[in-house]
Specification:
This protein starts with a helix and ends in a 7-residue tail after the last helix. It is globular. Helix content is 83%, strand content 0%. The chain is mainly α and 460 residues long. The protein contains 23 helices and no strands.
Length: 460
């Protein structure tokens, strides 16, 4: 009990010291208390609280003309925003920190800021801005004795080069980092860089045999290190690469191992991706019941509220960088999350918006999934004609894919007669003909069609 109570005691004491300093108008003591409180929250990995403390510290440090505290506040605030993955907010703070370091003739702090600014640009999907900064940081690191940060900089540079389509250059950069990791006998980083090289061959250069070779080397190292989290991820990578190469049975062998490890470690994101690929693999083999089962398992895992928050943030970032495909994907997941949370009006609105994006991309599969989801919303409120029209149009768009989604839509349509009865189904078919024709029209017609047909949804 004492060890659990100690952190809380420290926090209360630090807050008490801060309040006393403010009460006595002792700005020096207030500054010191804020520094200690920021460090406390940082060590506890309570990054939101630390971020707020650093932000409060900055104007006080400037009032006191305390350059050490000002540096701490700038770099601390930027670091916390980066930890919180608020990269677009971190970028201007890192720029301010770099300028502060330059004016203070602090080259090591300037180098730290340049490297982190490059990383933030990279994570914000702004690779053109990240590239020169990371190249500068690497070049300057070569000229100092402390090279601990060099492998991480090289890794970030490799990611940027890959995003810019310079895949051979990215591989060369990862190989450089791999050489350093071997010189330092850092097996964890060796495995990580081997995985990076594998991704380049798998995802961009269409060389699955090369990719599997590098992933397998990484897998052996992760197993040697007893790192089951990365072992599971690497098993998934090998399985996915086999799947793309058409080696379905080999793919499932690795994916099932990845699934078991992901379940053991409660890695929801990896488990969802693994079950999705298992579903696709089973569908390719013609095992449709198994494909649907894997698909349903994946959909049932993530908490809808968590999924909603995660995809809303990702959708906003995709919108900022103009990535329409990523925006459509995350908006579709937002619609699904709203549906699970019984926010039917919000789910409908998100699905309609997503259809527009998928039509821009000429993505029949994406459009079909949105229509099927809208059909499900209509089914829940007995909008029978529109449900039937949406599901029929979705099945038409998916025809010939052999996907789990196509099979599930076929089954949904087969079940309607049993659920509604034959007379109701026949009436719904008659009423759905015009709606089906409208659903097959141009993107511009879509909103007016649904506005007329779904007025009842606003009452959810």
């Amino acid at each position: 009990m004492a060890s659990d109570a100690q952190p809380q005691t420290n926090e209360l004491l630090l807050h008490y010291q801060l309040q006393q300093a403010k009460k006595e108008h002792d700005q020096r003591a207030e500054c010191l208390a804020l520094v200690q409180l920021a460090w406390y929250y940082d060590r506890q990995q309570n990054y939101p609280r630390a971020c707020g403390i650093y932000e409060e510290l900055l104007p006080l440090a400037r009032t006191l003309r305390d350059k050490n505290c000002e540096k701490l506040a700038l770099f601390g605030h930027a670091s916390m925003l980066t930890h919180l993955k608020r990269y677009h907010q971190a970028i201007p703070v890192w720029k301010e920190a770099i300028q502060f370091a330059r004016e203070g003739a602090d080259p090591l702090a300037e180098l730290e800021g340049i490297s982190n600014l490059g990383f933030s640009y990279q994570q914000a999907d702004l690779p053109e801005e990240a590239l020169p900064l990371l190249q500068e940081a690497i070049e300057r690191t070569r000229n100092i004795s402390d090279k601990q940060a060099l492998p991480n900089m090289l890794n970030n540079l490799g990611v940027v080069l890959s995003k810019l389509g310079q895949h051979n250059e990215a591989i060369a950069t990862y190989r450089h980092a791999l050489t350093i990791a071997r010189e330092w006998d850092d097996k964890g980083d060796q495995a990580f860089q081997l995985g990076n090289i594998g991704h380049e061959y798998a995802d961009h250069l269409n060389q699955p045999a090369q990719a599997i070779n590098y992933f397998t080397q990484a897998l052996l190292l992760f197993r040697e290190l007893h790192d089951e989290d990365y072992e599971a991820q690497t098993l998934y990578n090998i399985g996915r690469t086999h799947f793309v190469a058409g080696n379905i049975q080999q793919a499932k062998q690795f994916l099932l191992q990845a699934r078991d490890l992901a379940q053991r470690h409660n890695d929801e994101d990896l488990l969802i991706r693994t079950l999705s690929t298992l579903s696709e693999s089973s569908a390719k083999q013609g095992y449709l019941d198994e494909a649907v089962s894997y698909y349903d398992q994946g959909r049932s895992i993530e908490n809808p509220l968590t999924a909603l928050q995660r995809h809303q943030e990702a959708k906003n970032h995709a919108q900022e960088r103009g990535d329409t495909r990523a925006e459509a994907y995350h908006l579709g997941e937002i619609a699904t999350a709203f549906g699970l949370l019984e926010g039917h009006a919000e789910a409908l609105s998100a699905n309609l918006e997503t259809i527009g994006l998928y039509r821009q991309l000429q993505d029949r599969h994406g459009e079909a999934i949105c229509l099927i989801n809208i059909g499900t919303l209509c089914f829940l409120v007995d909008q029978q004609a529109l449900c039937l029209a949406c599901w029929q149009r979705g099945r038409e768009l998916l025809a010939g894919e052999g996907s789990p989604e196509e099979e599930m839509t076929r089954r949904k349509l087969d079940q309607l007669e049993r659920l509604w009865g034959k007379p109701t189904l026949q009436q719904a078919k008659k009423e759905s003909v015009a709606l089906f024709q409208q659903l097959s029209g141009e993107a511009g017609q879509l909103s007016s069609v649904f506005a007329r047909s779904l007025l009842d949804f606003v009452h959810f």
